[in-house]
Amino acid sequence: MTANPTRLGAIREIEANEAPAAFFNGTGDSPEIFGENVFSLPVMAKRLPKSVYKSVAATIEKGEKLDPAIADVVAAAMKDWAMEKGATHYAHVFYPLTGLSAEKHDSFMEPVGDGTAIWEFQGKILVQGEPDASSFPNGGIRATFEARGYTGWDVQSPAYILESPNGSTLCIPTIFVSMTGEALDYKTPLLRSQNAMSDQATRVLALFGHKDIDNVVSYCGPEQEYFLVDTSFVNARPDLLNAGRTLFGAKPPKGQEFDDHYFGAIPERVQHFMFDTERALFKLGVPAKTRHNEVAPGQFEIAPVFEKANLAADHQQLIMSTFKSIAKRHGFEALFHEKPFAGVNGSGKHVNFSFGNGNQGNFLNPGDNPHDNAQFLVFCAAVIRAVHLYGGLLRVSIASAGNDHRLGANEAPPAIISIFLGEQLQDVFEQIAKGGATSSKQKGALSVGVDALPVLTQDAGDRNRTSPMAFTGNRFEFRAVGSAQTVAAPLTIINTIMAEALDYLATELEAAVAAGTEFNAAVQQVLAKVIEQHGAAVFNGNGYSSEWHEEAVQRGLKKLDTTVDSLPEYQTPEAKALFSKYGVFNEAELEARYEVALEQYLMAVNVEANLTEEIAQTIILPAAVRYQTELAGNIAALKAAGVEGDLEDLNAVSALVAELRAGIKGLQAAVAAQHDTEGIAEAAHVKDVVLPAMLAVRAAADSLEGVVADDLWTLPTYQEMLFIK
């Protein structure tokens, strides 16, 4: 093989790789492993006095206010349990606006003054911590010199033991707020939005005659896509190391066009990684259910089953951090960037969500005859209204520099937020709009023409992978969320806009009934009104088609193609009124989300622009010039020998070298001009000038990769990174 020594060495390291011994020991892979490192309700039932346990259980299961008097008892039991599992330290775990998890570690050890120490954990420490709030993104809520911030124990998300090769730590999920109470994290607004949605859903349930109404929660089952790339390759790619995506790379001879990777046999080395991660996640109580190869080569997926949204959001953060740490043990880097490789599918995090409670079940379950299920239709209509009125907020909830590369690229939903109901529900709502629904399309039987095989059940309608918000049987799937993003942000928006929609429906129904309208007739009237006013958001066709984009604009739907286009949605009067009314964000907190998102967009692209210039100048251009020199030397040697050399290759390389140099100068000028702008104008300059300048550099570099001698090209190629495992 004539590859460059750097790349060849990486390949040989991969070939010599052996799976590490399983680190996460314990009870093996028996059912008992699930949740063994979680301070769960069954654990608490064994370790807490009955009255204390009942109090904690009421908070966890019914959302009742936490009794602070029980904190000391819970803390002592939690400490004893953790130390039995080898923990010497505890950490308040919170989710700042970086989008990552943060941890503040402290020891259980307390010196007693006589040269000895005791191990204790007090209730006041369990309930509240004090990390420095000035070093996290806050959007202007806190000045740099104002450092105080608080973490607060979230009893609804259980504490757990995080194992490492050298010890274990008790981790306690918490909120993170400023000294004056503003949310500096993703968990606090998610919990607020949950309360708001629960209040309004309870009103709707009461109208349907329910008396025993438990606390209503949203549920979430996120599907996580990711890439695995060998560490040896990543270490030789400054762009992957620093930006999480490749800024250069020619299209490989073979990509995903054969569809042979999707659901294909999982490579053995990848299976070893999956076994280790799943074992770790099971011990943490994460219900990881599904694993498979995804569409793109080197791409995979894990999907947990449904959980309460708050817990699901915490578990999503755990999945990403667990994948990162265990991947390194297996010689991989887990990539969560939405578009790490150009020309192949990127990665999303499909957020399946529903609403329900312990007594009334899943409110989005249509049953066999949806036309007769008035309660379901009301909740479904609430989703339609919410998506139509607040599609812009849904769009901004998943806005990022990374997701901009994926949305609308015929591999992910378009940036236009619409809703897919499917044939069965579409038909029911059309009947409602015409005066009343009397029937529902039923499931059928599907014979495949083989006598030995059973008859298969055929659903009443197909699924739609091009819709950003698709009904999939008993839930909606928000398919536009980026793979690197926390699910807490979109779930907060979904809960809040559902609170508004349910508030509206409950108010309309209450008024109609108070005016003497029979309840079922009132439901029919309200549902018909929702379809008339908000049916423009319903689209069952091909979301990838250019015709739909034109039609969506004609329908009045917002076309927010990029992060820069969508960020102003945080600042509209409608958004401020919505979040203020339901107590999810005050105006300062909402402005902070805008400022942080803007800052993160600018920082992400600035890092990529700097990397593009650096790699082009120090790696790609020198390789190209060396090859250009080799070709020129060959021409000179041939001429000295009296042979007329062919200048075609030299001229082609020289032209590309000139193009690369021009692209670098153009990028430098674009970045320099950025300093003349600020705020959203700076972001617009980055989108419209800097990103195209980066692409111009890449175009020349990728063309050079196709002609420069392989032994001179040091950057691992797409072919190597995607296919060698």
UniProtKB/TrEMBL annotation:
The organism's place on the tree of life at top rank: Bacteria
GO terms assigned for molecular function: glutamine synthetase activity
InterPro entries: Gln-synt_C, Gln_synt_N, Gln_synth/guanido_kin_cat_dom, Gln_synth_cat_dom, Gln_synth_gly_rich_site, GS_Type-3, GSIII_N
Single GO biological process annotation from the record: glutamine biosynthetic process
GS catalytic domain segment(s): 197-620
Signal sequence range: none
Domain GS beta-grasp: 88-181
One Pfam family it belongs to: Gln-synt_C
Cited Gene3D superfamilies: 1.20.120.1560, Glutamine synthetase/guanido kinase, catalytic domain
Family membership: Belongs to the glutamine synthetase family.
Protein name per UniProt: Glutamine synthetase type III
